[in-house]
Amino acid sequence: MKKILVTGSDGFIGRAVMKRLHNGGFDVTGLDLAQGDITDASCFDMFRANDFFHVIHLAGRTFVPDSWKDPGAFYRINLMGTVNVLEFCRRTGAGLTYISSYLYGSPEYLPIDENHPVKSYNPYSHSKLLADNTCQFYAQNFKLRVSVLRPFNAYGPGQPAHFIIPEIIQMVKDPAVKEVQVMDLRPKRDYVYIDDLVDAIFRTIEGEPGIYNVGSGKSISVEDLIKTVMRLSGITKPYMARGAERQNEIFDLYAGIDKIKFSLGWQPKTSFEEGLGKCITP
Fold first, then answer.
1. Which residues of 159-171 are buried (b: 16+ CB within 10 A; e: fewer)?
2. Distance between CA atoms of residues 32 and 7, nearest Å
3. Average pLDDT in the chain
4. Cα end-to-end distance, the chain, whole Å
5. Are residues 225 and 165 in contact, defined by beta-carbon separation less than 8 angstroms?
6. What are the boundaries of each domain within the chain?
């Protein structure tokens, strides 16, 4: 039975990954803050050399506003923590799946494929970009089996409340909220359901290493998101934009997913309405 190590195992994606791997017949070990801090390289000393076939690296800081308040923490965890994971893989020969982020900035073309130039506009995305690049360096120079996944907007039951989908669902369902208010109704994003993202991660364990976008290949506006949540929940409320357009706002983006379809045989199975329904009624 192949052994898999999952960092960030107690997070939104980590819990779903752990469940899928257990069900898939792997011997799975989780590593979160209760077991050790990935910014301390010695936390990996508890694992025997050559014991793990593969590492799935999910641990990291993610909330963009916090990255402006404490950028150093994001670089320590997202970059140097990833270096420690890569060093563990280099020493032991384990393969690695690194969960990166949306790194393309304002699109120069659509759909956005893996060859699109990468950019960063905040400390969070910069820390992920540096870690993404470091993973590629180790793959090329130390011959590690590394897959880098770049998810677009993952969502699903149990996602933290500050993300847009659970925030809108909460406003629609809360009787005390008389009007759904968002910053801007116009931006369109590519949403990928958690089970589909986990399936992509699962396929990298023994699949062809590489850099892969993970998305639906289509975009949904904030306004359409609100309307769909209200229709699926059977609750109708007025909604409005506060007219607070974000700096460097991107108004449309969606993933090109031909590469992951061809190389890993992956494609999303969960429609946006089906996924939203599971979030509204978990």
1. beeeebbbebbeb
2. 6
3. 96
4. 32
5. yes
6. 3-155+193-217+255-269
Q: Which of 151, 137, 165 is nearest to 103 (CA)?
A: 151
Phi–psi pair at 169, nearest 5 degrees: -60, -40
The answer on pLDDT for 111 being more than 90 is yes
Structure tokens at 12: 């939104």
CA atoms of 59 and 134, how far apart (whole Å): 16
The answer to whether 120 touches 69, Cβ cutoff 8 Å, is: no
Architecture of the 3-155+193-217+255-269 domain: 3-Layer(aba) Sandwich (3.40)
Yes or no: say if 8 and 18 are a contact pair by the CB < 8 Å rule: no
Residue 1 has pLDDT above 90, yes or no: no
- The yes-or-no verdict on residue 49 having pLDDT over 80 is no
Supply the pTM of this predicted model.
0.96
- Alpha-carbon distance of 243 to 76, in angstroms, equals 35
DSSP letter (8 states) at residue 209:
-
Mean pLDDT of 139-146: 97
The pLDDT of residue 249 is above 90: no
| Antiparallel, parallel or unpaired: β 146-151 and 95-99 | parallel
Cβ(254)–Cβ(112) below 8 Å: yes
Mean pLDDT of 167-185: 97
